[in-house]
Amino acid sequence: MQLTSIIAIYVLFWVISAFIILPIGIRNHHETDTAMVKGQSDGAPVNFRPGRVIMLTTLLATAAFGLFYLNYANQWITMDDIDLFNSEERLQQE
Predict the structure, then answer these.
(1) pTM for the complete prediction?
(2) Which pLDDT tens digit goes with each residue over 28-51?
């Protein structure tokens, strides 16, 4: 696998991990009984910590990419294993 492919796939894992991590631990004003600022949205987070989000996202993305790369290198799960509709066989018949 080329370095550019590795970087592109890792970035995809990182973005997906960010969407998984973002809502974890977030509290709004109603849950914490804090006063709202004028013009602020009802669902605006009170305790958003971007450093924590970046750290947890990087950890999750690195673990997920590590599993992906190990599977790529060792071929634990291949396309033949997940071909539920026998598409390879149908392509050979045509």
Answers:
(1) 0.79
(2) 888 888 888 888 888 888 888 999
List beta partners, residue 45: 28
Q: Which of 54, 59, 48, 40 is CA-nearest to residue 23?
A: 48
Residue 11: both structure tokens together: 């970035």
Question: What does 11-59 look like in DSSP terms, one character per residue?
Answer: HHHHHHHHHHHTTTT--BHHHHT-PPPTT--TT-BSS--HHHHHHHHHH
- What three-state secondary structure class fits 77? coil
